[in-house]
Amino acid sequence: MFEPDNRRFHYPFINCSNCGPRFSIIESLPYDSPNTSMKKFEMCDKYKAEYENPLDRRFHAQPIACPECGPKVQLLNHYGKIICEKENAISESVQKIKEGKIIALKGLGGFQLIVNAGNDDAVKILRHRSIGMKSHLH
Hints:
By secondary structure, the chain is α+β, with helices and mostly antiparallel strands.
């Protein structure tokens, strides 16, 4: 991830090929790429070569991906419109959190709500909204 010559340089979706996500991405058995949330990402030639090579550490590793064929980082507004992508999306999200905004981060296992815990007003807004959400669930 931190080697500039590696094609996965700064790619945020790298995972361990031995113990990477399993339960959070599997949709049915057997545990193969077509049965996971990764199924919509068609393997590029380089990824496929690693996946099919028994001598490669990424051999048959279901969730492996790269910037060419895997998930991408995007920052969306509340209407679902893309504001920015890649490293710009990360730095812009950090800026919004510093400004007291609440970020919903979609991960493998669902969403995480992120707020600056040192910003009392932002925390109060998050708490108020989450109480309102609970009342809608009942």
